[in-house]
Amino acid sequence: xxxxxxxxxxxxxxxxLAVLSLVAVVALSLHGTEKAMAQQAAGGVQSLRGExxxxxxxxxxxxxxxxxxxxxxxxxxxxxxPLIPHKIDGYQIDRAVNQCMLCHDWPYNVDQGAPxxxxxxxxxxxxxxxxEVSPRRWFCTQCHVPQSNARELVxxxxxxxxxxx
Length: 165
Hints:
By secondary structure, the chain is an all-alpha fold. 32% of the residues lie in helices and 0% in strands.
């Protein structure tokens, strides 16, 4: 009989603890909601939608192309990977997804009017031609970088291979 009472006491204590925890969570969430509503009323918090009502469509802003010279920059040496002539901020490139492939992989490049990636990117390390991009060529930004007409961050006297001739 003592074991039953003891077991019942533990269950009752756990039940009371669960109820108290639930009450605390509800109280904190209500307090947080009231605080957020007060901040919004005071103009301290803005919706990510801006002034657009939730029932209206929010038009995405036009993403400008990166300011580049006419055409693209000349390559500075033989076998230099081409520079990327547009911004890539926010592009997802990880083990599962490569956003560059949505425009540059065949056959998407035809619809997008983008250059197709080189056939060398479809060859694995053993020289076998693949139907998909080789895993060793998956992370584009290992070799390709956005072109920019920015000033030098560090003074240097680099000369392209053409200038050395």
